[in-house]
């Protein structure tokens, strides 16, 4: 028997809240169909690829007094991609709905992600197993993986495994790539008359799987609150010691929703937004100049401290850096068999590369600190590309801001001190104890996933909306996965994928940061949110993100 903390013991007892439409029971539901749907882009190609599932309507559920009977059925569930707080509750909600519908129903968990359904590795869930994981963080109940489901051979193997277990429904819990897999698998099952439904659940702490029907992906609430606590602690330390600048990199490679939310919760001095950098075509020098200017202005007011939030994917959004990386990839591909280059010392390699790059890219490469040049020349990824994700952006900016301030000191534009500390918060938030919001939301998503299956739907994403209201007022339903898809180039080929939701620079969330940016830069308007609260008044324990509040307020104002 594993040891449990006092908090885990209490959290196991927590009963998640459900929307009123679902709280009446899984066998007391009525489904309401909306209008037919279209995909976000590339309709002709998507319609051709998903001929059997394209254009289906959005659906919602309401409670009815007419009780229905559910025939015995078996369902399989997969955790896919990176971890996010609340995944265990999605499975718990699915399990409870399935057992409530018919106690003879079985739920199988495929182990290690999508590979589990291909290789036939699974467990059968029991009350004891589920009860040991309710309201806990992590994906360790069955593990996760990043295997893509996209080939005929994989689909055939998955079908065989499902038939052997009598599985007639599969729930895939994942982000945009994982739910693209769900859409492909659902289409193949229908096309081949397999009699197996596929339902997805929206997961990612990055917050980039959302639209009008999916207001937030699960895990975002807990992760951003976890990071905000850490950033708040650092803010208080900086304000106490008054001698350090803290450069904090936050997880979120493709979008800056995490950084933006943490900024609104804590109000740091500098917040960089990747999408803004790309939109304004900012150079690395412009970013460094902006940050050095804030440091200098604060120093002029006697404040040699502060905090800067930096998105994980910033580098890939800087146009000049993106162009240099593309040129560098081609150059390194040519040089990998060059004996002179392979035998050269490090500095000589830098010069050889500089000579091969075009003049603009060579200038960007030369401007980088040695440490970053070294990281660019690390082993390349399986596709032969520079591993940009391994670049320590926070350290790059510290070095370049420090160099800029040294030049400013010579001209008298900077008369303070600059001593910096760097941090990266990523894994700290992925498996945190889910907040009450995520515990409730995830449980509802899982429960709702079975409701979609009960009504015979496939190729849908479990949707729970109206999330800034109390849980009883949430709206449960489903969204066709094809509605969120477009065609994008992946590894040289155009493929159907769920479109990532980037930060909307005209939206209310970014506008709130933009409105306050100058004041927060110079005045210490720091907020210290503290740790996630699981007990106490609803105004403390059930609060959600600033992002969700602002976006839903804007929707209401537009009505």
Oligomer: single chain
Count of helix runs: 23
Helix content: 40-55%
Task: Identify the CATH class of the largest domain.
Answer: Alpha Beta
What is the 3D form? globular
Q: Show unreliable segments.
A: none
Q: At the third CATH level, what is the topology name of the largest domain?
A: Rossmann fold
Note the beta-strand portion.
5-15%
Major sheet summary line: 9 strands, mixed
The overall number of domains is 3
Rounded mean pLDDT score:
94
- N/C terminus separation: 54 Å
Strand order of the largest sheet: 1-2-13-12-7-6-3-4-5
The Rg value, from CA coordinates, equals 25 Å
* Number of strand elements: 15
Label the CATH architecture of the largest domain: 3-Layer(aba) Sandwich
Secondary-structure-based class equals alpha/beta
What key phrases describe this protein's structure?
Rossmann fold, 23 helices, 45% helix, 15 strands, Arc Repressor Mutant, subunit A, alpha/beta
Structure description:
With 559 residues, the chain is an alpha/beta fold. It folds into three domains: 205 residues, Rossmann fold; 170 residues, Phosphofructokinase domain (Rossmann fold, 3-Layer(aba) Sandwich), CATH 3.40.50; 77 residues, Arc Repressor Mutant, subunit A. The protein contains 23 helices and 15 strands. Strands 1-2-13-12-7-6-3-4-5 form a nine-stranded mixed sheet, with helices on both faces. Strands 9-10-8-11 form a four-stranded parallel sheet, sandwiched between helices. Strand 3, helix 4 and strand 4 form a beta-alpha-beta unit. Helix 10 packs across helix 21 and helix 15 packs antiparallel against helix 16.
């Amino acid at each position: 028997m594993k040891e449990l903390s006092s908090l885990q013991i209490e959290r196991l007892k927590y009963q998640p809240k459900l929307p009123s439409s679902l709280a009446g029971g899984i066998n007391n539901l009525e489904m309401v169909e909306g209008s037919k749907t279209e995909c976000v882009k590339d309709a002709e190609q998507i319609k051709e690829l998903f001929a059997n599932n394209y254009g289906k309507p959005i659906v919602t559920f309401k409670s009815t007094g007419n009780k229905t009977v559910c025939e015995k059925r078996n369902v399989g569930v997969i955790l896919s991609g990176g971890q996010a707080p609340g995944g265990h509750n999605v499975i718990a909600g699915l399990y409870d709905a399935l057992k409530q519908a018919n106690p003879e129903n079985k739920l199988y968990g495929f182990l290690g992600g999508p590979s589990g359904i291909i290789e036939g590795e699974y467990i059968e869930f029991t009350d004891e197993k589920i009860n040991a994981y309710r309201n806990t963080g992590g994906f360790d109940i069955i593990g996760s993986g990043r295997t893509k489901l996209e080939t005929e051979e994989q689909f055939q193997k998955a079908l065989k495994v499902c038939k052997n277990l009598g599985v007639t429904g599969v729930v895939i819990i994942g982000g945009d790539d994982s739910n693209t897999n769900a859409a492909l698998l659902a289409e193949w099952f229908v096309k081949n008359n397999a009699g197996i439904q596929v339902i997805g659940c929206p997961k990612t702490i990055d917050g980039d799987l959302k639209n009008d029907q999916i207001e937030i992906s699960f895990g975002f609430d807990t992760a951003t609150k976890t990071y905000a606590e850490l950033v708040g602690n650092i803010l208080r330390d900086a304000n106490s010691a008054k001698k350090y600048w803290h450069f904090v990199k936050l997880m979120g490679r493709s979008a800056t929703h995490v950084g933006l939310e943490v900024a609104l919760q804590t109000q740091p001095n500098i917040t960089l937004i990747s999408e803004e950098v790309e939109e304004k075509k900012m150079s690395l020098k412009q970013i460094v100049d902006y940050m050095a200017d804030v440091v200098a202005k604060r120093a002029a007011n006697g404040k040699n401290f502060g905090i800067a939030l930096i998105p994980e994917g910033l580098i890939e959004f800087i146009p000049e850096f993106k162009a240099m990386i593309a040129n560098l990839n081609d150059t390194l591909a040519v040089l990998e068999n060059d004996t002179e280059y392979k035998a050269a010392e490090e500095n000589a390699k830098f010069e050889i590369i500089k000579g091969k790059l075009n003049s603009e890219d060579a200038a960007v490469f030369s401007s980088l600190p040695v440490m970053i040049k070294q990281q660019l020349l690390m082993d390349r990824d399986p596709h032969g590309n520079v591993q940009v994700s391994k670049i320590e952006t926070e350290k790059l900016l510290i070095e370049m801001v420090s160099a800029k301030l040294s030049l400013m000191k010579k001209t008298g534009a900077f008369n303070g001190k600059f001593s910096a500390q760097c941090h990266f918060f990523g894994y700290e938030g992925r498996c945190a104890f889910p907040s009450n919001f995520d515990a409730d939301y995830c449980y509802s998503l899982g429960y709702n996933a079975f409701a979609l299956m009960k009504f015979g739907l496939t190729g849908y994403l479990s949707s729970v909306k109206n999330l800034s209201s109390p849980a009883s007022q949430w709206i449960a339903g489903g969204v066709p996965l094809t509605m969120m898809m477009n065609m994008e180039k992946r590894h040289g080929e155009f493929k159907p994928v769920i479109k990532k939701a980037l930060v909307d620079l005209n939206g209310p969330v970014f506008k709130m940061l933009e409105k306050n940016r100058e004041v927060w830069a110079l005045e210490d308007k720091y907020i210290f949110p503290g740790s996630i609260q699981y007990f106490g008044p609803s105004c403390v324990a059930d609060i959600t993100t600033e992002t969700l509040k602002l976006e839903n307020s804007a929707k209401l104002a537009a009505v």
